[in-house]
């Protein structure tokens, strides 16, 4: 296993367009997290799944954001009607449910909205 | 007020120096304390975690937690140029992590 994989690594989009990111967690991990990191800041929690169930969402996750993990494996994060303020690094992490402290992060998807 | 405060630096030290990185927090519910290292344009990498007050050592790294003062530290001994990165403290009372803003460290040869 090569760790948490995110695709694409970089995305440039025009304001108002929809974008979708994919995360493939470490295969044995049943928890999957999404975080957002802006320049010079630490990551901020967005949401997490245990298997296919979305158990918690941050207030940062506005109505334009939706995340899915349909089969409890990979996850997608979609942003509709992107705004310039959505420009950030979107990080995915995964862990065992019982070992959630040891979350492993992917390389992130860097989104630029122009 | 942010739940976790971290000195953003930047911090520049000569090779071999002892580095001290610090965070304070306000949420008494935090039970787990972590340090992550993040290289430029990479995802964070977990260095150490602890859940009790006191010290935890791993090689050149020592994590210190003082719950009574709501203060945590990471010490790096014999710092190396390869330690140059951003260091993030993170805390949790459940499944989500709350991060500090990170301290950028440069170790000069």
Shape of chain B: globular
Determine the fraction of residues in helical runs of chain A and give it as a percent range.
Answer: under 10%
Return the average pLDDT of chain A rounded to an integer: 94
Q: So what's the oligomer here?
A: heterodimer
Order of helices and strands of chain A: EEEEEEEEEEE
| Topology order of chain B in helix (H) and strand (E) letters | EEEEEEEEEEE
Radius of gyration of chain A: 13 Å
In what range is the share of β-strand residues of chain A?
A: over 45%
Task: Please give the count of helices of chain B.
Answer: 0
Alpha-beta classification of chain A:
mainly beta
Contiguous runs where pLDDT drops below 50 for at least 5 residues of chain B: none
N-to-C terminal Cα separation of chain B, in Å? 38 Å
Most extensive chain interface and residues per partner: A-B, 26 and 25 residues
Q: Report the mean per-residue pLDDT of chain B as an integer.
A: 94
Major β-sheet annotation of chain B: 6 strands, mixed
Q: How many beta strands in the DSSP annotation of chain B?
A: 11
Most strands sheet of chain A? 7 strands, mixed
Low-confidence runs of at least 5 consecutive residues of chain A: none
Please render the helix and strand layout as text:
The complex is a heterodimer of chains A (114) and B (109).
Chain A: E1 5-7, E2 10-13, E3 19-24, E4 31-37, E5 44-50, E6 53-57, E7 65-68, E8 75-79, E9 88-95, E10 104-105, E11 109-113
Parallel strand pairs in A: 2-11
Antiparallel strand pairs in A: 1-3, 3-8, 4-5, 4-9, 5-6, 7-8, 9-10, 9-11
Chain B: E1 4-6, E2 11-14, E3 19-25, E4 32-38, E5 45-50, E6 54-58, E7 61-66, E8 71-76, E9 85-92, E10 98-99, E11 103-108
Parallel strand pairs in B: 2-11
Antiparallel strand pairs in B: 1-3, 3-8, 4-5, 4-9, 6-7, 7-8, 9-10, 9-11
Task: Offer a concise description of the structure.
Chain A is mainly beta and 114 residues long. Chain A has no helices and eleven strands.
């Amino acid at each position: 296993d090569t760790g948490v994989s995110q695709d694409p690594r970089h995305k440039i989009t025009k304001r108002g367009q929809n974008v979708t990111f994919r995360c493939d967690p470490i295969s044995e991990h049943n928890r999957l997290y999404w975080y957002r990191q802006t320049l010079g800041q630490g990551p901020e929690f967005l949401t997490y799944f245990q298997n296919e169930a979305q158990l918690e969402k941050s207030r940062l996750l506005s109505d334009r954001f939706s995340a899915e993990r349909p089969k409890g494996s990979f996850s997608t994060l979609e942003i509709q009607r992107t705004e310039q303020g959505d420009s950030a690094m979107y990080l995915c992490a995964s862990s065992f449910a019982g070992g959630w402290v040891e979350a492993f992060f992917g390389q992130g998807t860097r989104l630029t909205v122009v | 007020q942010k739940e976790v405060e971290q000195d953003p630096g930047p911090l520049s030290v000569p090779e071999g120096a002892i580095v001290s990185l610090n965070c304070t927090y306000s949420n008494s519910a935090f039970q787990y304390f972590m340090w992550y290292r993040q290289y430029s344009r990479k995802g964070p990498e977990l260095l150490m975690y602890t859940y009790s007050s006191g010290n935890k050592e791993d090689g050149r790294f020592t994590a210190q937690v003082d719950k009574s003062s709501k203060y945590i530290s990471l010490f790096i001994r014999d710092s190396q140029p390869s330690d140059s990165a951003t260091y993030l403290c993170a805390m949790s009372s459940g499944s989500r992590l709350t991060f500090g803003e990170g301290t950028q460290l440069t170790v000069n040869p």
